[in-house]
Specification:
Bound molecules: phosphoric acid mono(formamide)ester, norvaline
Structural class: alpha/beta
Mean pLDDT: 97
Shape: globular
Order of helices and strands: EHEHEHEHEHEEHEHHEHH
Low-confidence stretches: none
Number of helices: 10
Radius of gyration: 19 Å
Largest sheet: 5 strands, parallel
Length: about 260
């Protein structure tokens, strides 16, 4: 037993659904001797319009740390400004930092240091993509991004300091060429359901399939934060294929968040 968090509650607030994030935080807190309390918008006063600032004052008096999954990044920042305890981002529309901690750890486990390597991001320039781009600045690797027209990276929204660590490609095949890691995510993220039909049409050529994987390095890995849609952003032959490390990625949410 290793229980440095004995008697310490984590409050987890979910305004969006989750399997991995909830489970990994809850199991991790349990393993470290603490407790995790689950609150969702549906069954708390947050869903009835209690101001986020008031909720932060109250919730942070009853726990030692908070994790929030919400919509706009501004919501978590407002919460954090009024919280007495640290606040972890469990995913916002703009970022998903816990996921990228796990992904980079997974890369290091399989291939060693990520500095100087090339990561190809294929698909939507969403929260997971933005956080990969931030990580590239921190860890010193490069990201080749290919999105359909109209879905390009917005550097300010992505929270980037510069454009030195990524390059955009109109053709996903070009983006993947020579990459050490190919990664993608759903075409329609939580909170964007109304755009689902349009996105399915716009993203048709941005599916990572075996032919696309052959453009990457012979030892390239494939990652997906999950949940995945086989036949949309990733072909089943890739998601379930020999280059895929998606189950290690999911497991590493537990280990990296315990470290965090
Ligand atoms: N990857 C991820 O965050 O999964 P959940 O939505 O299941 O938490
Ligand atoms: N980009 C996805 C990630 C889910 C873990 C979403 O925000 O829905």
């Amino acid at each position: 037993p290793y229980h440095p968090l004995f008697d310490r509650p984590l409050v987890m607030i979910f305004e969006k659904q989750s399997t991995r994030t909830r489970l990994s935080f809850e199991a991790g807190m349990h393993q470290l001797g603490g407790a995790a309390i689950f609150l969702s918008t549906r069954d708390s006063q947050l869903g009835r319009g209690e101001p986020v600032e008031d909720a932060a004052q109250v919730i942070s008096r009853m726990c030692d740390i908070v994790m929030i999954r919400t919509f706009e990044q501004d919501i978590i920042e407002r919460f954090a400004r009024h919280s007495r305890v640290p606040v972890i981002n469990g995913l916002t529309n703009e970022y998903h930092p816990c996921q990228i901690l796990a992904d980079i750890y997974t890369f290091i486990e399989h291939r060693g240091a990520i500095a100087g390597k090339t990561v190809a991001w294929i698909g939507d320039s969403n929260n997971v993509c933005n956080t990969w781009l931030q990580a590239a600045e921190v860890f010193g690797f490069n990201v080749h991004v290919s999105t359909p027209p109209g879905y390009e990276v917005e550097p300010e929204r992505a929270g980037l300091y510069g454009t030195d660590h990524y390059e955009e490609f109109a053709d996903p095949m070009e983006a993947v060429r020579g990459a050490d890691l190919v990664t993608t995510d759903v075409w329609t993220s939580m909170g964007f359901k109304a755009e689902g039909g349009t996105r399915r049409r716009d993203f048709g050529d941005w599916q990572v399939d075996a032919e696309m994987m052959r453009q990457a390095r012979a030892d390239a890995l494939f990652m997906h934060c999950l949940p995945a849609h086989r036949g949309e952003e990733g072909a089943a032959e890739v998601i379930d294929g020999w280059q895929s490390v998606v189950w290690d990625e999911a497991e590493n949410r537990l280990h990296t968040q315990k470290a965090l």
